[in-house]
Amino acid sequence: MRIACPFCGPRGVDEFAYLGDATVKRPNADAPDALPAFVEYVYLRDNPAGLHRELWQHALGCQSWLVVTRNVRTHVIDQVEAARDVAAARSSEAE
């Protein structure tokens, strides 16, 4: 599998480190339901078939964090975005 780093170009997957699901959001620790929300956040994950957004780091390259949209059935990569751009878009949606 090759990942097209937006900064370095296409590279082999061996240059990258996988972190996990890029769609999970940390719960509010001050919320009244914080304990069950954190249990779900830490221990429960969906196992989707098809497109999935994942967090990767270009560990042996530019060190950038990336959000990779990948089909987990075929390993075909649909999209690669800089994680900072995804986070900025998410925070502008929240405002």
TrEMBL record:
Keyword Oxidoreductase in annotation: yes
UniProt protein name: Sarcosine oxidase subunit delta
Sample GO molecular function, one term: sarcosine oxidase activity
Cell inner membrane found in the keyword field: no
Species the sequence originates in: Hansschlegelia beijingensis
EC number: 1.5.3.1
A matching Pfam family: SoxD
Taxonomic superkingdom: Bacteria
Family matches, as InterPro entries: SoxD (IPR006279), SoxD_sf (IPR038561)
Keywords: Oxidoreductase
Any one of the GO BP annotations: tetrahydrofolate metabolic process
